[in-house]
Structure formats: structure tokens, C-alpha cells
């Protein structure tokens, strides 16, 4: 069976959009064997890491497990949706509930507020479960055409054609995935936990605070708004950290797409893209950031960053409907 595979190789490098859509349709339909919500969570994790691939279109198991764990922490701990399997209890539920009970963690505690060692422990345990039940299962459902994987190197490599496809249709794919995942959770869980279910499934919880990024940016650059240039002083222009690319499009926090902003600009920009002229500004800002600290924390935070990535992300945001352009 495909879920027991330790290595999966790509069967085809080239696929047309029509062929990819056909496979996605099968994955999301009743023709695909879905005993748990795992496949949906993996698709969500793949989408959240589209912009984190290296030059060989690879993403690490740790990167995928981080998002996968956040998805389930949000559902299990925050929203108390604990049924994710048609048979016995899903292993990821047991892992998260055991750690929550062990450390008496309240339900309002979001994943990124947990201490680093506990996050690492959870991600490691979830990654082990993904090796057994997740990577091979979706690989089989996608007919070995979407990605390759290797448990020894702990890397998943996208089919370049599928990576490009997912970038192009990112918003549509995530909406379809959320809908089908919510439908399955609704079937497995009882009321009242299913109230406003789609909203609970759609969200990959935001980091509780962007203050660590704010401190790094302030330590390398002047305290001025990236957009209007005014000094970030006084109550009217208090410092904010803004997602240059709307968070609702890519629900992840990476320093290379975060900027310092004043309250006025941050509020008026909201969920919009800034006009294209600011793109050159953030590319230049990121280059300065890399040069200013060639080793240490910034290097880790800028891992896999390339200028073309944020340009590509900007262009794909527009293709996915974020075409309302903002200017101060």
C-alpha cells in the first residue's frame, strides 16, 4: 500500500493543467479513500510552503510538519474538534492531547506561543506520524505524479509543473480543500463544536505576536514607516509590523515579507497589495538585511529566500484575486 512507502519517485515530470485538475478532482472526490483528514491537512501544508522551496523544488519534512501541527493544534486545542478519523482515534489527536494535558496548556494558547522545546517535540512526533500515514497516502492518490519523497533525507520534492499549477490556482485549491475538509469534520464531529466550521478550518492560526520580527527590523533599520516614510514615534504613529503580501493569501510569517509600518498605513492597507513600486523597496530592504548580518538569526530567518520569490509571490497574489492595489 502506498502509505507504507518510505521512498516515492515521480512518475512524470510534465503534466498539463487539465491533467493536474483531473487528479485533484479525484483526490477531493469520493473516489479517493479518505479514512482521516490527513490528506487535506497535507495539501494545506504544501500550499503554505510553496514559497519556501529550494532551487530543486524541495521542502523539508520539518517545514511541512510545522504547518501540519499548527493546523491540528488550531482544530483540536482551540476549537475542540477531536474526531479526524473514521476508525480509531487519529494519532495526531492523541499526540496533541497528551502534550496539552501533560503541561496543562489552556485552550486559548495558540501553537506559536508554546515554548520552543515543546514545539520541537510536537513537530517531531507529528512528523513521525506523517511518515507512516500521510506522505505515502497522498502520493498514491495523486498517482505518483505530484511529488517525490524520501524518509531518509526527510525531503519532499514537488513536480515543477504541479508547483507552478499550485501557485497559479492557490486560492481556489485552498478553498476547495477547506470545504472538503470541513465537510468531513462535520460528519465526524457532533454539534455544537461544528458551529462556524469553515472559519475554524480555514484559519492556520496567526503568530500571537510579531514583536520578535519588529525587534530585528528595528535593530537594522531606522524606525520609519516602510510605506509613508514618517518616523514611528508618538501615539499616532506607533510601530506596527505589516504583512507586505496579505496574510490571508499566504498564512505564514516570514521576515522577508514583513515590514515596519505606522498605524495609519497598516490600517488603511488592510488586506490589499501595495502598489508595485514598493516591491523594489522590499527587495532592496531584504538585500540590506542579508548583508547586515551574514550569520546568526537573520540567516536562519532568510533561509531559502531569493528576490525572485517575493516578486513571484506578488504576481501570484494578483492572479489569485488580490488585484485591489493600495497606496498611502
Structure description:
With 328 residues, this protein is α+β, with helices and mostly antiparallel strands. It has 2 domains: 2-202, no CATH class; 211-326, no CATH class. Helix content is 50%, strand content 8%. It has helices at 17-28, 38-48, 61-78, 91-102, 116-133, 135-141, 160-168, 170-188, 197-202, 211-220, 263-269, 277-292, 297-301, 307-319; strands spanning 7-8, 58-60, 147-150, 155-158, 239-243, 258-262, 273-274, 325-326. The longest helix has 19 residues, at 170-188. The model has no long low-confidence stretch (mean pLDDT 90).
SSE topology:
Layout: E1 7-8, H1 17-28, H2 38-48, E2 58-60, H3 61-78, H4 91-102, H5 116-133, H6 135-141, E3 147-150, E4 155-158, H7 160-168, H8 170-188, H9 197-202, H10 211-220, E5 239-243, E6 258-262, H11 263-269, E7 273-274, H12 277-292, H13 297-301, H14 307-319, E8 325-326
Parallel strand pairs: 7-8
Antiparallel strand pairs: 1-3, 2-4, 3-4, 5-6
Amino acid at each position: 500500500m502506498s502509505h507504507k512507502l518510505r521512498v516515492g519517485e515521480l512518475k512524470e515530470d510534465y503534466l498539463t493543467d487539465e491533467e493536474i485538475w483531473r487528479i485533484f478532482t479525484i483526490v477531493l472526490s469520493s473516489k479517493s479513500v479518505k479514512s482521516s483528514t490527513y490528506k487535506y491537512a497535507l495539501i494545506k501544508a504544501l500550499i503554505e510552503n510553496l514559497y519556501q522551496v529550494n532551487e530543486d523544488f524541495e521542502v523539508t519534512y520539518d517545514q511541512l510538519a510545522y504547518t501540519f501541527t499548527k493546523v491540528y493544534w488550531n482544530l483540536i486545542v482551540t476549537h475542540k474538534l477531536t474526531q479526524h478519523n473514521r476508525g480509531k482515534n487519529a494519532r495526531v489527536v492523541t499526540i496533541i492531547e497528551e502534550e496539552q494535558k501533560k503541561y496543562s496548556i489552556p485552550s486559548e494558547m495558540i501553537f506559536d506561543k508554546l515554548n520552543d522545546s515543546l514545539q520541537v517535540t510536537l513537530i517531531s512526533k507529528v512528523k513521525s506520524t506523517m511518515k507512516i500515514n500521510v506522505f505515502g497516502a497522498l502520493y498514491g492518490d495523486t498517482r505518483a505524479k505530484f511529488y517525490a519523497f524520501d524518509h531518509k533525507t526527510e525531503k519532499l520534492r514537488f513536480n515543477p509543473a504541479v508547483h507552478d499549477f499550485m501557485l497559479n490556482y492557490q486560492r481556489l485549491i485552498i478553498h476547495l480543500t477547506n470545504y472538503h475538509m470541513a465537510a468531513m469534520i462535520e460528519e465526524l464531529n457532533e454539534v455544537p463544536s461544528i458551529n462556524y466550521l469553515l472559519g475554524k478550518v480555514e484559519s492556520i492560526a496567526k503568530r500571537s505576536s510579531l514583536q520578535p520580527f519588529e525587534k530585528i527590523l528595528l535593530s537594522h533599520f531606522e524606525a520609519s514607516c516602510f510605506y509613508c516614510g514618517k518616523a514611528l514615534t508618538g501615539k499616532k504613529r506607533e510601530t506596527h509590523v505589516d504583512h507586505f503580501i496579505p496574510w490571508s493569501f499566504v498564512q505564514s510569517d516570514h521576515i522577508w515579507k514583513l515590514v515596519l509600518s505606522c498605524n495609519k498605513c497598516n490600517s488603511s492597507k488592510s488586506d490589499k497589495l501595495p502598489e508595485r513600486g514598493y516591491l523594489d523597496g522590499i527587495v532592496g530592504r531584504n538585500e540590506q538585511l542579508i548583508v547586515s548580518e551574514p550569520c546568526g538569526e537573520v540567516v536562519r530567518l532568510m533561509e531559502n529566500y531569493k528576490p525572485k520569490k517575493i516578486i513571484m509571490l506578488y504576481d501570484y497574489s494578483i492572479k489569485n484575486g488580490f488585484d485591489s492595489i493600495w497606496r498611502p
